[in-house]
Amino acid sequence: MALIVFLRGINVVGHRTLRPSMLARDLAAYDVVNVGAAGTLVVRKPVSRTKFLAELRRKLPFEAAVSFCDARDLIRLEMENPFGAEPFDQNVVRFVSVLSKTSRGKASLPIAFPGDEEWFVRIIGSRNHLLFGVYRRHMRTIGYLGQIDKLFGAPATTRSWSTMLSVLRLLKELPAGNPRNGARPI
Hints:
Elements: E1 3-8, H1 20-26, E2 32-35, E3 40-43, H2 49-59, E4 65-70, H3 71-79, E5 92-99, E6 111-113, E7 121-127, E8 130-136, H4 141-145, H5 147-152, E9 156-160, H6 161-173, E10 182-183
């Protein structure tokens, strides 16, 4: 089963820059495919997490927070249709946050940040170490996304639902062992 790896805090305004496509190429022995520029990697060669994460950390030019999930976790989330029939608004982004470890927090969901009618982030549900919700496109949103860490007692790495759907397409379209690695046009 494929492993999905999420790097947190890279390529942020010229700080901690990294080319994920080059990282994927450096990890070719694990049949790694890069998705986007934010540090989302699909590891298609079955390997122990411990071994892969140790190799990944050796290849990174700086310390980075790493979260991951199995492909089956993401596939199960898609099958459950976490966003239901919620209407699409161009100012609202659907997202999934991956906790780096099992949550110690016991937040009652759904929850909104801030907790009034002018919310910027709403977490509407969770499945194991995956949280899902929506956020508004606004400069203050990033600060509220950062509160997820405190609320759930574990670092969370967030990707848009469209990025997750790109990962799911990759999992469904490309057979394991495909020699093409590195960047994947999405």
